[in-house]
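queue> holo job accepted (adenosine-5'-diphosphate)
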Amino acid sequence: MISQLGIIGLYEKRKMARILTGIQSSGKPHLGNLLGAILPAIALSKKERNDSYFFIADLHSLTTIKDAELRKENVRSVAAAWIACGFDIEKNTFYRQSKVPEVCELAWILNCFTPFPMLANAHSFKDKSDKLSDVNAGLFVYPVLMAADILLYDADIIPVGKDQKQHLEMTRDLGLTFNRKFGDTFVIPEPQISNQMEIVPGIDGKKMSKSYGNILDIFQPDKKLRKNIMSIKTDSLALKAPKNPTTCNVFKLYELLGSDEEIEVLRKSYLGGNYGYGNAKQELFELILKKFDKERSTYDKLISDPESLENMLCEGEIKASKIAQSVLARVKDKIGF
Ligand code: ADP
Ligand code: TRP
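queue> job finished
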């Protein structure tokens, strides 16, 4: 019998929910990734009854990044950011997608059960194929690899941003269709999409995104970080003039990080006049240094010791491989391989 959550008994038997999410290594992690994805997922992983599988989707990033050195550097930055932000890699499982190759075998099997129009009509493929010059087959089957990422680990709950909703629907569809045809095989996952998740604005006021070149990288050295913050776009009101905090990018970013008290003090400075955007940017810079002091120094340590980082990932990959092998064996048995 198949429940909403897939195979009856598995979830209950484990007495804990398996949380799984991936983040592509397509660039440096930025403040939007941190506030919108990394920190909320880490908070979820801290609940005792949750067992979390977080991974770096480096195979997905190959759809757009072909430079091996750049990809490796991004993998290290993303890995260091998760660990620096407090992801407990002993309690949980942390790995690179590419190091558990069973995912490719499962993706191929799922490809053979995926209706062509399902992929042809995917929003993300349409968006990307309109924008990118390299429209490769990897981009087309991207959602099937993502379904394999999830189904391979019997995951129950998948925290993602709104943009991933359709990918999760496809994953559920593929899992349910397979279960109907071959009997209980996959756990059917539930997406966890936070509607109130703030869209963190970039330094130009648009959504912060690697693809818009408008990111705030909080892990940069002090000098570069300060320069990055000083380049946030503002209007050009004179120093003397009172300023509107609600329309200012600097204030919006400060609001996402400051305490109620700190925000109130800054609001008053804006409204009072004789307070320039340069001062506000300096406040934001100091707030980021204070708020992420521990994370920034842990990140620096991890990045300067790639061997330890590699070992941490390898340990996670051993754990991830065990479950991947057993689920893949279950699937192959069902289809007669
Ligand atoms: P990018 O747009 O920089 O390429 P990704 O697509 O790799 O970001 O997103 C990774 C995760 O970070 C997703 O869960 C996404 O919802 C979240 N995220 C990305 N940008 C923002 C933002 N500006 N505000 C809030 N969350 C974001
Ligand atoms: N497609 C996701 C993104 O761009 C990354 C991702 C790959 C993912 N595989 C996943 C997220 C599995 C959740 C579960 O953000």
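queue> The two ends are 24 Å apart (CA to CA).
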